[in-house]
Design brief:
The complex is a heterodimer of chains A (about 375) and B (about 230). With about 375 residues, chain A is of the alpha/beta class. Chain A has 2 domains: about 5-190, 3-Layer(aba) Sandwich (Peroxisomal Thiolase, Chain A, domain 1), CATH 3.40.47; about 200-215 and about 255-365, Peroxisomal Thiolase, Chain A, domain 1 (3-Layer(aba) Sandwich). Chain A is about 30% helix and about 20% strand. Chain A has a 10-stranded mixed beta sheet with strand order 5-4-6-7-1-8-14-13-11-12, sandwiched between helices. Chain A has a two-stranded antiparallel ribbon with strand order 2-3. Chain B has about 230 residues and is an all-alpha fold. Chain B has a single domain (about 10-225), classed as Heme oxygenase-like (Heme Oxygenase, Chain A). In chain B, helix 3 runs antiparallel to helix 4 (about 75-90). Chain B is globular and about 50 Å long. The chains are: A alpha/beta (about 375), B mainly alpha (about 230). The interface of A and B includes residues 214, 216, 263 and 266 of A.
Chain lengths: ~375, ~230
């Protein structure tokens, strides 16, 4: 059974926030302007992003509501009515509630009945896990269609008050880094077992991923304080104790981050050697790189490998829509499809490297008749 | 870098070699001494033991390169020249390791009299065997892995070591040396790949040797923690 992406949708909360406005939304830590902000923004190249919190750091829209809005947008663009949806597969790095699963909350917000439900948990690549689950369900003829939604509301972790709780004002570079990288938003894809005559149906040729958690330490995390080897957030006597220790901050081990380039390229070379992909036959590349800096690193390494893909084939909306974690690739695909005149047979290669503990997912799409 | 691999077969070979290098690179993260080195938990004794173990392979390393040079016949005389140049450049590298060992406070007689570990024995044995075959072009695969590791040592390990220890004089000259010469060596390797990756059979031989050398080099590093 072939599987097609027949519709896409997205939701970005509020107005676009430019670089000068970020601290108005997230707040100044101890009333002081960040000294790292400019440097990190220069390196990632992001110019605009959206936040689901307002300038008083109050949540304006929840993560599950954002997901539902993207899902509705996707269904509205499709041939189906929402009561025909058979499966809902959702992804986020952190739902509004710790429990139940994010998918349950999204289903309720969408108000769709008796669907098969799946929730993928992780960071950037969790959307690809959710997509693969839905792809497989249609592939093995379990369902005719599936709605896949990925959504992120990380700005709640970046409120100035979060950092101000940490004992001895001990906010290091690794704890502040992602404050200038990530923002909020949701994306959705509708999969079906038949193509639609929109000229924009994309056949999913394959989805593959390679995880290297056994070979690398944790690189991006919430739940562990700096220099703490074993103890995680629930091991503290109280949550406030965990917060004071800095165990609830979103951290990135910047020293390990360069490994993500090698992980991404290794998987790509593996797919080439397994004959799943031919660099000469790729028409478009949609890669979820987190910053301009990494884009150039990926380019260099592919060139070293003799596997480079010309720059004009690469598309991203990172700089205008921000890095929305797992939602990024769906938001990117949505805007790409809507701004490009695609021709039958053109191929799209998608790549989602996740630095969490080094997982990289890939997908190959072909524009269907 | 101007020297790019140009032929389609050369590109295919290069892609396979980089893939093998990355697999090797990732697998090293699970080698205990490498883990400690990269995660800031290396003891001074660890570093000394590492130098001591590396020296035994490096001092033999110039032998397999020299021997392979003599195994290239008239049809490969251009390669022979390059390999001889390479051998002459590197045949005294072990002295840097001895110098570094002494800079860490080690006794030069200890490093000079130590034996090869079991991984080094296997690696050296394999390389000498391949180098003795007629026209051993597959050894380009071995050079690729060893150059790659030199590059990693220079860019990463040397930095990690100098963050963990303070020495009166440099104790990472071996690792740093490989960084300084890396660009030149890599350009040379690219040229060689285009020259010898002229058939699927040749590519298969080159990648096979690269894989074996990667595996045995990993064994050599694992054995650093196994005192006999």
């Amino acid at each position: 059974m072939d599987v097609y992406i027949n519709s896409t949708g997205h939701f970005l909360p509020g107005k676009a926030i430019n670089n000068d406005e970020i601290e108005e939304v997230l707040g100044l830590i101890h009333g002081k302007k960040s000294r790292l902000k400019k440097k990190i923004l220069q390196s990632n190249g992001i110019l605009h992003r959206h936040y689901a919190i307002n300038t008083a750091q109050e949540t304006v829209i929840s993560n599950s509501e954002m997901a539902a809005n993207a899902g509705r947008n996707c269904i509205d663009n499709s041939y189906l009515s929402s009561n025909k949806i058979k499966m809902l597969s959702c992804a986020t790095s952190q739902g509004d509630n710790v429990l139940p699963g994010f998918g349950s909350m999204v289903q309720a917000a969408l108000n769709i009945s008796e669907i098969e439900l799946s929730t993928s948990h992780g960071i950037c690549s969790s959307s690809m896990m959710a997509l693969k689950t839905a792809f497989n369900a249609i592939k093995c003829d379990d369902h005719d269609n599936a709605l896949v939604v990925a959504s992120e509301l990380t700005s709640r972790l970046f409120k100035h008050t979060r950092y101000e709780q940490v004992e001895n004002n001990d906010v290091d570079f690794n704890a502040e880094f992602l404050r200038w990288m990530l923002s909020d938003g949701a994306g959705a894809l509708l999969l079906e077992n038949q193509s639609r005559p929109t000229g924009k149906s994309l056949k999913i040729d394959w989805i593959k991923s390679f995880s290297h958690a056994n070979a690398f330490p944790v690189c991006m995390s919430v739940g562990q304080a700096k220099d703490e080897d074993h103890k995680t957030w629930q091991d503290y006597a109280t949550y406030s104790e965990a917060e004071r220790a800095g165990a609830l901050l979103l951290r990135q081990d910047v020293r390990l981050l360069d490994n993500i380039v090698a992980v991404g390229v290794q998987g790509f070379l593996k797919l080439i050697s397994q004959k799943h992909v031919d660099t000469d036959k790729i028409d478009h590349v949609l890669c979820h790189f987190s910053s301009k800096y990494f884009k150039s690193k990926i380019f260099d390494m592919l060139e070293t490998a003799g596997a480079s893909i010309p720059e004009e084939k690469w598309y991203t909306n990172l700089y205008q829509r921000g890095n929305t974690g797992c939602a990024s690739i769906f938001i990117m695909l949505d805007e790409f499809i809507n701004t490009h005149d695609l021709k039958v047979g053109e191929t799209i290669f998608c790549m989602v490297p996740e630095s969490g503990r080094f997982n990289c997912a890939y997908m190959h799409l072909t524009v269907a008749e | 870098m101007e020297n790019k691999v140009l032929t389609p077969l050369g590109q295919e070979c290069l892609q396979s070699l980089l893939k093998i290098w990355l697999d090797f690179d990732f697998s090293l993260n699970n080698v205990p001494v490498v883990k400690r080195l990269e995660q800031g938990r290396l003891s001074l004794e660890d570093y000394q033991t590492l130098l001591l173990n590396l020296r035994q392979q490096v001092i033999e390393g110039s032998r397999w390169i020299s021997r392979s040079a003599s195994s290239f016949d008239r049809d490969y005389s251009d390669i022979r020249s390059i390999v001889i140049g390479h051998a002459s450049e590197e045949h005294r590298d072990y002295l840097l390791l001895e110098q570094d060992y002494v800079a860490t406070g080690g006794n030069v007689e200890d490093i000079q009299s130590a034996k090869k570990n079991m991984g080094s024995e296997a690696l050296h044995g394999f390389l000498m065997y391949r180098a003795s075959q007629p026209n051993p072009i597959d050894l380009i695969g071995a050079m690729w892995i060893i150059e790659g590791l030199g590059n990693k040592m220079a860019l990463k390990w040397s930095k990690c070591i100098n963050e963990q220890f303070t020495f009166d004089q440099s104790a990472t000259s071996f690792m740093d040396y490989h960084g300084e010469n890396d660009e030149h060596h890599l350009a040379e390797l690219y040229k060689l790949i285009d020259r010898v990756a002229t058939s699927e059979k040749n590519i298969e031989n080159i990648t096979r040797t690269a894989k074996v050398v990667a595996k045995l080099y990993k064994l050599q590093l694992e054995e650093v923690d196994n005192d006999e």
